[in-house]
Specification:
This protein is α/β, with parallel strands linked by helices. It contains 22 helices and 15 strands. The mean pLDDT is 95. The structure holds 1,6-di-O-phosphono-beta-D-fructofuranose (FBP).
Length: 552
C-alpha cells in the first residue's frame, strides 16, 4: 500500500522524553510521596478499594532500579473515542518494555475492553509497531466502548489475563475507562491475582484533568485541527460576507474544546455550556443572545459571522437537561417496550403522558429531527449521544424564527443566511501534533516504568507540560485519588471526577474579557494547519488552555 510522504516522514520522528525517562533504563527510579486520599467520600472509597486505596504519588527520578529489567508480558487496550496519539502511547510502552528486557512481550487487545473479556488479541511485534509510530487513529488494534461491569465480565478478564500469562494490563481511556481500570486493579488483587492495571489519560474532550493530570492526550491535536477549520471558515465568511456559520464542536459534556477553539480563532460567539448552566439560561435566552450579536453586526452591514457551540450544551440548558433526564429514565425503565416500538410516530404515541407537563411541551415544540435524535440509543455508560444531536440546526431554526418576528416588528433590517457544521470526527484521528506525539510516547513509557516497578491502580502522569519536553515530570497518580461517589443509574457509584470548564479559571476569564468586542467587531484569527517541522514556536506550542492555566 502506498503511504503519504508525510506519513513516511513521521515514521522517522523521534518523540522527545522527559529527562527522568531518557538515558540508561537501569537508572529510572521511583520517588514515592505520602499516602493519598480520594477527593471526597474517603470512608466509602477506602472500603470499596480495600487493596488499592491510599497509595502514594510517584515521580520518576534518576537512580538505581533493580526491577526494571524484569521480563514482562503486558496487554494494552485502546478504549472509547479515538484521540490523536494513541499509537504513540503503545509505542512508548513497547519501547520501554523492550529497553527493559528484549524478551518482554506486548499484546494488543482488539476492539477495546471487549478484547480483554473475549480474549481477542494480537502480539505487537517491532515490525507491526513501526507501521503506526506517530500516526493518528486507533486502527492499530481498534477501540470500543464496552464497559466491564458484570461479575462475569470481570471473571472473563481475569481468565484472559491468566491464559496469556499477563503481568499487567494498560488501559488507554477517558474518565469512564479509567474508572474501569481502578475497579479492575482492585478486582485482580481481591482475587489474589498479581496482574497489575495501569491507565493512561486519553480524550479529545479534555475533561480528564486535575492537579496531577494537566491534560488528556489528543486534546492538543484535535483543537488545533478544529481551529484550523474554524479559521478557514471565518476567512471565507469575511470574504463572502453572506453567511452566519453555526459550528458545533465535539466535547460531550465539557466545553474545553469550544473554549480553546474560541481563544484560538476569536469568533463572534462562543457558547460555554458550564456558563449556560450556571446562569440558568433557557433555549430562548441563548437565541436572544445570538440575535443580539446578529442585529448589532447587521447595523454595521456585517451580515455574517461565526458561532461556536459545544455539542454538550443541550444537556446544560436546565429545561433540556430535565427533558433528557426524564427521557433517560422512561427509556431505561421500559427498555424492551421502547425497543419494540416500530417508528418515531409509535414512540411519540407511547411517550404521551409519560413526561412532566413542562418537558412534554418542550419536547412537542422541538423540530422533528431533534426530537428523533433525543430518542436515539444511549451509550454503554448510559449517556445520551450528544454527538448525534444537531444543536446547530436547532439554534439556526430558532434564530431564523426570532429574526423574522423582529423584522416584522421593524427591529431588525439585516439579511440572515446560516450554514451549520459539526466538527468532531475530523479531528480525532489527525496525525498527532509534536506535543501529542511526545506526550503520548512519554505516557506509554511511564506506564512501562510503573508496571516494571510493581505498581497497580495508577494513572500514568506527565506534568510541567508548558515547559520543553526534557523538563516534563513523569510519574504516576493513584486512580483512587481522583475518585468520588456519583449517582449513576439510580445508585451511588465510584467514578473519576470529570473536569468541566472552571468559570473562575484563566481560560474562561480570558474569553469573557474579549467576547463582547468579538460579538460586534470582526476580530477573527486564522491559526492555519498544524505544523510538524519548523521552529518550535510554530510546531511545539501547547494549547492556550494549558498556557493560561499553568503559565499565566
Ligand atoms: P471519549 O470520551 O471516549 O474519549 O470520547 C469522546 C468523544 O469524542 C466525544 O467528544 C463524542 O461525544 C463522542 O466521543 C462520540 O462518540 P462516538 O465515537 O461513539 O461517536
Amino acid at each position: 500500500m502506498e503511504i503519504s510522504a508525510l506519513q513516511k516522514l513521521r515514521y522517522t520522528y523521534k518523540p522527545k522524553l522527559p529527562a527522568g525517562l531518557s538515558g540508561e533504563i537501569t537508572e529510572v527510579a521511583l520517588e514515592l510521596g505520602a499516602p493519598t486520599e480520594s477527593i471526597s467520600d474517603q470512608g466509602e472509597l477506602r472500603e470499596l478499594f480495600k487493596h488499592t486505596y491510599g497509595k502514594p504519588l510517584v515521580a520518576f527520578v534518576r537512580g538505581k532500579n533493580d526491577k526494571i529489567q524484569k521480563k514482562l508480558t503486558v496487554g494494552v487496550i485502546l478504549s472509547g473515542g479515538q484521540a490523536p496519539g494513541g499509537h504513540n502511547v503503545i509505542a512508548g510502552l513497547f519501547d520501554g518494555l523492550k529497553k527493559g528486557n528484549p524478551d518482554s512481550k506486548l499484546y494488543g487487545f482488539l476492539g477495546g475492553p471487549g478484547g480483554l473479556t473475549d480474549n481477542k488479541v494480537r502480539e505487537i511485534t517491532g515490525d507491526f509497531m513501526d507501521q503506526y509510530r506517530n500516526t493518528g487513529g486507533f486502527d492499530m488494534i481498534g477501540s470500543g466502548r464496552t464497559k466491564i461491569e458484570t461479575p462475569e465480565q470481570f471473571a472473563a478478564a481475569l481468565e484472559t489475563a491468566k491464559k496469556l500469562n499477563l503481568d499487567a494490563v494498560v488501559i488507554i481511556g477517558g474518565d469512564d475507562s479509567n474508572t474501569n481500570a481502578a475497579l479492575l486493579a482492585e478486582y485482580f488483587l481481591a482475587q489474589g491475582s498479581a496482574v497489575q492495571v495501569i491507565g493512561c489519560p486519553k480524550t479529545i474532550d479534555g475533561d480528564l484533568k486535575n492537579q496531577y493530570i494537566e491534560a488528556s492526550f489528543g486534546f492538543d491535536t484535535a483543537v488545533k485541527t478544529f481551529s484550523e477549520l474554524i479559521g478557514n471558515i471565518a476567512r471565507d465568511a469575511n470574504s463572502a460576507k453572506k453567511y452566519w456559520h453555526f459550528i458545533r464542536l465535539m466535547g460531550r459534556s465539557a466545553s474545553h474544546i469550544a473554549l480553546e477553539c474560541g481563544l484560538q480563532t476569536q469568533p463572534n460567539i462562543c457558547l460555554i455550556s458550564e456558563e449556560v448552566e450556571a446562569n440558568n439560561l433557557s433555549l430562548g435566552q441563548i437565541v436572544d443572545q445570538i440575535c443580539a450579536s446578529i442585529i448589532k453586526r447587521a447595523e454595521n452591514k456585517e451580515n455574517f459571522g461565526v458561532i461556536l457551540i459545544p455539542e454538550g450544551v443541550v444537556e446544560f440548558i436546565p429545561e433540556m437537561k430535565k427533558l433528557i433526564a426524564e427521557l433517560n429514565d422512561v427509556m431505561a425503565l421500559n427498555a424492551e417496550i421502547f425497543a419494540g416500538l416500530g417508528n418515531f410516530e409509535a414512540q411519540i404515541d407511547w411517550l404521551g403522558g409519560k413526561l412532566s407537563p413542562e418537558s412534554g411541551t418542550l419536547f412537542q415544540s422541538l423540530p422533528e429531527e431533534i426530537a428523533k435524535q433525543l430518542l436515539m440509543d444511549r451509550d454503554p455508560h448510559g449517556n445520551v449521544q450528544v454527538s448525534r444531536i444537531e444543536t446547530e440546526k436547532l439554534l439556526i431554526s430558532m434564530v431564523e424564527k426570532k429574526l423574522s418576528q423582529l423584522k416584522k416588528a421593524k427591529a431588525y433590517g439585516g439579511k440572515f443566511s446560516a450554514l451549520g457544521h459539526f466538527f468532531g470526527y475530523e479531528g480525532r484521528c489527525a496525525f498527532p501534533s509534536n506535543f501529542d506525539a511526545d506526550y503520548c510516547y512519554s505516557l506509554g513509557f511511564s506506564a512501562f516504568v510503573l508496571i516494571a516497578s510493581g505498581l497497580t491502580g495508577y494513572l500514568a502522569s506527565v506534568r510541567n507540560l508548558t515547559a520543553p519536553a526534557d523538563k516534563w515530570i513523569a510519574g504516576g497518580v493513584p486512580l483512587t485519588m481522583m475518585m468520588n461517589l456519583e449517582r449513576r443509574h439510580g445508585s451511588q457509584k465510584p467514578v473519576i471526577k470529570k473536569a468541566l470548564v472552571a468559570l473562575e479559571g484563566a481560560p474562561f476569564k480570558t474569553l469573557a474579557a474579549f467576547r463582547d468586542t468579538w460579538a460586534v467587531k470582526t476580530s477573527f484569527v486564522f491559526p492555519g494547519a498544524i505544523q510538524y517541522y519548523g521552529p518550535p514556536e510554530v510546531c511545539d506550542q501547547p494549547t492556550r488552555t494549558l498556557r493560561l492555566e499553568y503559565r499565566p
